[in-house]
Amino acid sequence: MNPLDELYQAVILEHSRRPRNNGPQPVPPAFHAEGVNPSCGDEIEVWVNFTEDGKIGKVTFQGQGCAISQSAASIMTVKTAGRSVEEARAMLTGFHEIVSTEIDPDMDRFGELAVFAGVRQFPARVKCAMLGWRALEQALNRSEASVTTE
Q1: FRET pair for 66, CA 20 to 30 Å: which of 20, 25, 38, 117?
Q2: Using an 8 Å Cβ cutoff, are 125 and 34 in contact?
Q3: Fold (CATH) for 3-149
Q4: CA distances from residue 88 to 18, 30, 93, 148, 150 in whole angstroms, order as listed
Q5: Which whole-number Å values give the CA distances from 47 to 14, 17, 39, 91, 143, in the listed order?
């Protein structure tokens, strides 16, 4: 087994056993979205709140599913907190490239997220890895829609 495969397994197991920011919505109230993967039954709910300067304050999630969906959501909550919406969207795009293309991930830019490149070997698992990220994207869309209607 090569070192990246070992790191992939270690990171996924660590975050699936001890997920970060797992629990109900943060206070103050947050924008919410749900994701469901009907092919495997994974479910994730994501909440996002914002700081006064418009950056992402906290992201939490809860749900059930495989180690890949849970660990990807866990790392997502850590990596997107404190970022602008644009930065979070760029990270989502980059993560999608990591799990679905042959592009070598930039370890400096993506850190732990880069180990999910191993998912591309199992195309059916890409949806698992992206589930929390797609829910985050929906929550961000809702937050932007609320700003334009106020």
Answers
A1: 25
A2: no
A3: Sufe protein. Chain: A (3.90.1010)
A4: 23, 16, 9, 19, 23
A5: 22, 21, 23, 17, 11
pTM of the entire predicted model: 0.89
User: What backbone phi and psi angles, to 5 degrees, belong to 68?
Assistant: -65, -45
Q: What is the pLDDT along the chain (150 residues), one digit of tens a residue?
A: 555 566 678 888 898 899 999 987 766 778 999 999 998 899 999 999 999 999 999 999 999 999 999 999 999 999 999 999 999 999 999 999 999 999 888 888 888 898 899 899 888 899 999 999 999 999 999 988 876 655
